[in-house]
Amino acid sequence: MAIARSLGLLLFLLLDSDETTERSRNVCQLKDAHEYDTFDLTDIAKCFTKCEQLEDSSCDVGNLQRYWLNYESYLLENSMETVDMPFVKALIQNISTDVSEDLLFSLMPSQIPRQVMQGEDQPTDRVRLPKSLFGTLLPGNRSAVRLAITVLNIGAGNVFKGAKLLQDNGSSVLNNRMVGLSVGQKHTTGLSEPVEITFSHQRQLPNMILTCVFWDVAKGNWDSQGCSTELGDERTVCHCDHLTFFALLLRPILDMATAQTLTRISQAGCGVSMIFLAFTMVLYVTLRLSLQRFKSEDAPKIHMALSSSLFLLNLTFLINVGSSSQGSPASCWVRAAIFHYFLLCVFTWMGLEAFHLYLLAIRVFNTYFGHYFLKLSLLGWGLPALVVIGVGSSNSYGIYTIRNQENRTSLELCWFQKEPALYATVHGYFLVSFLFGAVVLALVAWKFFTLPSVTAGKGQGQTWKSVFTILGLSSLVGMTWGLAVLTPLGLSTIYIFTLFNSLQGVFIFCWFIILYFPRQSTATSSSGTARVDQAHSVSQE
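That's the Adhesion G protein-coupled receptor G3 sequence above. Prediction below.
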């Protein structure tokens, strides 16, 4: 008998263990019926962290999402007033349908939502419900309607993330919190006065785009239709014309996929530019050997100096991006310094192109300087070297990393590790060169379009010649780099800047061809910068 009882107890324990294991395995699949008692809620809430991969077969994300979406309806049907659990906070309250003012509720983290009365300080996280919501859209004999406000912590897993959010590396829901609003179990849309949800966050969210979104049940994904986003320094206000679950979506401007795409565009553009810059330099050598005037003119030499520095910049960029941050710290330091040097050389020679253009087109007379090109070369190649030596002595070169809000690496290369040096010797240096070039180009454009031959309307083609001349000169003085100031406007401007700037070598080649291989019809023209550039020199070797 004792042996039989022991075997029976052992069999019971084994069966109970199998049942417990099976329940644990099926809890995130929700194959069995689950209630909204404390035990089931706690058990199923663990799936927020368990379900971390999109293809995890142990989780049925769709069932889990439906379970939590229906939880708000369960709260409205029952006589509960509050829910206070680590993963969910809720307030269920009867609201009069003839309220005379908007209602404000606190959504502070780790606290149960509560109504904020008049005279109280407004909490940083809050929701404002318009009075018209309870009167106009909920008519009838009912004097009150039940309101449910739910704050759900969805964790870092893939529940309530959606396929697009999971595919965008670095995208996330702010603080992994979603706010549910429901009134009388009515599907409320098309509000004349939108609900207003305020999410607080740190003052600066670097490289991030903030978007107010709601959970679209039909799509199983986040959507922004019907919601507008009002950005602030330390808060973002969402205005939405319907009731459901809301959240603030964070998407990095340069997520991993975007960074890789931009890098490929830059690499392709730089490769194409290098080919055309090589053609330009070969043509220059050919012309210098065949035409005597090419040995004395300074303009072609300056063009070649800019082309050479741009060619070497593209080359070092391809090497730097291709090798990323691999290698020893010393080799990374050297790559960063060389890349910085040729970048500054490009900026300097673009500024010198603008200076030469000023002498040719604006000053015109008294433009003789002894050993002119030699002095330009000392400035064009020497000044960047002094800056790089100064930056290197301050140990400012190293691994440069762009990270998103989740602290994941979007891009890593050998560049600056100290931002003050980057701002001073790259941003500031470029700004001086760019502004000088822009002013000179504006003066040249003004002079072209105020020439008597243009203002008198002697030929429609003259205006177009001037326009194309200005466009050609803009490539020499680096106006494509000025698109960088537009990049904060959004991702599209980043793509435009990357594409046009990486093709600067192509634009220079086209300008060189037009300038030194003119058509027969324009070869005898007495106007235009091409003519001026070929006919004048500001130095004598």
